[in-house]
Automatic annotation (TrEMBL):
<dbReference type="InterPro" id="IPR012336">
    <property type="entry name" value="Thioredoxin-like_fold"/>
</dbReference>
<dbReference type="InterPro" id="IPR013766">
    <property type="entry name" value="Thioredoxin_domain"/>
</dbReference>
<dbReference type="Pfam" id="PF13905">
    <property type="entry name" value="Thioredoxin_8"/>
</dbReference>
<dbReference type="GO" id="GO:0004791">
    <property type="term" value="F:thioredoxin-disulfide reductase (NADPH) activity"/>
</dbReference>
<dbReference type="Pfam" id="PF03107">
    <property type="entry name" value="C1_2"/>
</dbReference>
<dbReference type="InterPro" id="IPR046349">
    <property type="entry name" value="C1-like_sf"/>
</dbReference>
<keyword id="KW-0520">NAD</keyword>
<dbReference type="InterPro" id="IPR052259">
    <property type="entry name" value="Nucleoredoxin-like"/>
</dbReference>
<comment type="similarity">
    <text>Belongs to the nucleoredoxin family.</text>
</comment>
<dbReference type="InterPro" id="IPR004146">
    <property type="entry name" value="DC1"/>
</dbReference>
<dbReference type="InterPro" id="IPR045870">
    <property type="entry name" value="TryX_NRX_thioredoxin_dom"/>
</dbReference>
<feature type="domain" description="Thioredoxin">
    <location>
        <begin position="129"/>
        <end position="288"/>
    </location>
</feature>
<protein>
    <recommendedName>
        <fullName>protein-disulfide reductase</fullName>
        <ecNumber>1.8.1.8</ecNumber>
    </recommendedName>
</protein>
<dbReference type="InterPro" id="IPR036249">
    <property type="entry name" value="Thioredoxin-like_sf"/>
</dbReference>
<keyword id="KW-0560">Oxidoreductase</keyword>
<keyword id="KW-0677">Repeat</keyword>
């Protein structure tokens, strides 16, 4: 098969994608696949074309601005990089597939032969892994049936069976991840006491280096997929992770319970376990009923201002100095907070 590769040296996404394509092309050729790529330059001049082409092991059309305009028009090229697989029509003519750059970025060498049919096959396999409830197929690979702890101990994926599992996508360079990690550690440790052996978290690193990965994991009490493992990219793709931090919850049967575990953890903490939609609704309703029984304002002899009922993810009570969450009587002017129970006791 043959593909047309529209690219330019001035284009940063092109420079980032080209080494990936070189690696895939080399792997395919080394395993006997009959593939050829033809580079079509959108560079500004021939010198730039030659500089870009020297990093490529495939063929190229001579630098020709008139020809490339015709080819861009014929193949509907609106952005670069673009990788257009050529195909044969039912009548024996020359046809072509949709741009395969995204397919290659998502699936790597498995994307070959870069056709719509192949995309359908790969997406069906992703669906089967996502919905199958088999943790080894989801978290492991052919050469790995374990996850690791912060000190490098290998824990069999089979040991996770029957637990609620959180898949935590994060990175050390991401400030929101570092903030959420603290919340998740608090919930994790609380459930370790209240529901021992029922909840586990698997860290899936989006860090940019192994050093960053180690820095992330060293602050975490849970397990992780090894750094740069192929499962990281696969899980990010399978669950369509678009931003971090992200926490996806798998039930005891290995199937997805909740795709937005971060919101449940941040809003309700350990009380929302096992983080199902029904349990979150129960907690939400219980909080609503609790709030309905509380006055909107109170006067407390320990504070000169009226205290208003409010909702907070976390606070420290100025009376008992213990942590609190959800309902609080607060003076925003003085940053003074009381547990509802502490107000009741003082009054």
């Amino acid at each position: 098969m043959a593909c047309l590769f529209f690219s330019a040296h001035w284009c940063r996404p092109c420079r980032n994608f080209t080494p990936k394509l070189v690696q895939i092309y080399t792997m395919l050729r080394n395993t006997g696949k009959n593939i050829e790529i033809i580079f079509i330059s959108l560079d500004h001049d021939e010198t730039s074309f030659l500089n870009h082409f020297k990093s490529m092991p495939w063929l190229a059309l001579p630098f020709n601005t008139s020809l490339r305009r015709k080819l861009c028009s014929h193949f509907g090229i609106e952005h670069i990089p673009a990788l257009i697989p050529l195909s044969e029509t039912p009548s024996g003519g020359l046809g072509f597939e949709d741009d395969a750059v995204k397919l290659v970025e998502e699936y790597g060498v498995d994307a070959y032969p870069f056709s719509a049919k192949r995309r359908g096959e790969l997406e069906a396999m992703d669906d089967a892994r996502r919905q199958g409830g088999k943790l080894q197929e989801l978290l492991g690979c052919k050469d790995r049936d374990y996850v690791i702890s912060a000190d490098g101990i290998k824990i069999s994926i089979a040991d996770l069976t029957g637990k609620t599992v959180g898949l935590y996508f994060g990175a050390h360079w991401c400030p929101p991840c570092r903030a959420f990690t603290k919340q998740l550690i608090e919930v994790y440790n609380e459930l370790k006491i209240l529901r021992p052996g029922s909840f586990e978290v698997i860290f899936i690193s989006i860090d940019r280096s192994k050093e960053e990965f180690q820095a992330s994991l060293s602050a975490m009490p849970w397990l992780a997929i090894p750094y740069s493992d192929t499962a990281t990219q696969e899980l990010t793709r399978i669950f369509a992770i678009k931003g971090i931090p992200a926490l996806l919850i798998l039930g005891w049967d290995g199937k997805v319970l909740k795709t937005d575990g971060r919101t449940a953890i941040s809003a309700y903490g350990a009380t929302a376990f096992p983080f199902t939609e029904s349990r979150v609704s129960e907690v939400d309703e219980a909080l609503r009923k609790e709030g309905d029984k509380l006055p909107r304002q109170v006067n407390d002899p320990r504070h000169s201002h009226e205290l208003e009922l409010d909702m907070a993810k976390a606070y420290i009570c100025d009376e008992c100095l213990q942590k609190g969450r959800h309902w609080v009587f607060s003076c925003k002017q003085c940053n003074f907070d009381l547990h509802p129970s502490c107000v009741e006791e003082s009054n």
